[in-house]
Amino acid sequence: MLKIARIVIVALCCILICVLGTIYSFICFRNPSNVGIMARWFGRLFPLFGLNVEHRFPQNKENMPRCIYIGNHQNNFDMVTISYMVLPRTVSVGKKSLIWIPFFGILYWVTGNIFLDRENRSKAHSTMTELARRINKDNLSIWMFPEGTRSRGRGLLPFKTGAFHAAIAAGVPIVPVVCSTTHNKIDLNRWDNGKVICEMMDPIDVSSYTKDNVRELASYCHDLMEKRIAELDAEIAQGK
């Protein structure tokens, strides 16, 4: 019964956010700060899932330079955990098919996010080039999930290199954002589903990397994030 009630309440909240967010975003049409506002609206829904989410930002988050944020992509609960970490003037890159999701698709477009056609490799490559141009031209940061899909309990999946090519081309740092493991830890029929920690890590300078060793950069970031996720999981397990 609790699970059904939660699903109904969350669905209604999501529809309301999408409708109000779409109206707001049409007024401020494709303003790059719209994405962060909407992401934080969704991120405030975490108590409905019986979660206690701690968000850890750097002390200087207001002065964060243009960058590419990379997050671990676990499951649908990312909507109420790691999404809250999106800062102003940050847009995300998502698959083209998102546009067809009822209510959410139009919101995703009107807030100013960028669509990626994964089926067309040449278009996907040109999108990364366009990202680099827009970061500097429009004073934007970009949010990406370099795994390319939800991991669903398989650990941190190998990274695709698109985000790293874009960072090198734009000359901006990579900022990892990690969320502790939520797979198989949330039961919608349970009142208390424990603690989740989301943390924005220090920027990673990419100036010493080129397109020839971009996979080294991707591997370095992957290992760094994988280690930090394990540390956050251990911290939660110890009840700190």
Automatic annotation (TrEMBL):
Molecular function terms from GO: 1-acylglycerol-3-phosphate O-acyltransferase activity
Pathway info: Phospholipid metabolism; CDP-diacylglycerol biosynthesis; CDP-diacylglycerol from sn-glycerol 3-phosphate: step 2/3; Lipid metabolism
EC code(s) of this entry: 2.3.1.51
InterPro entries: AGP_acyltrans (IPR004552), Plipid/glycerol_acylTrfase (IPR002123)
Catalytic activity, as annotated: a 1-acyl-sn-glycero-3-phosphate + an acyl-CoA = a 1,2-diacyl-sn-glycero-3-phosphate + CoA
Keyword terms, alphabetized: Acyltransferase, Lipid biosynthesis, Lipid metabolism, Membrane, Phospholipid biosynthesis, Phospholipid metabolism, Transferase, Transmembrane, Transmembrane helix
Domain called Phospholipid/glycerol acyltransferase: residue spans: 67-182
SMART domains from the UniProt entry: PlsC
NCBIfam families the record matches: AGP_acyltrn
UniProt family annotation: Belongs to the 1-acyl-sn-glycerol-3-phosphate acyltransferase family.
Domain free text: The HXXXXD motif is essential for acyltransferase activity and may constitute the binding site for the phosphate moiety of the glycerol-3-phosphate.
Protein name: 1-acyl-sn-glycerol-3-phosphate acyltransferase
Protein source organism: Haemophilus parainfluenzae HK2019
Gene that this polypeptide is encoded by: plsC
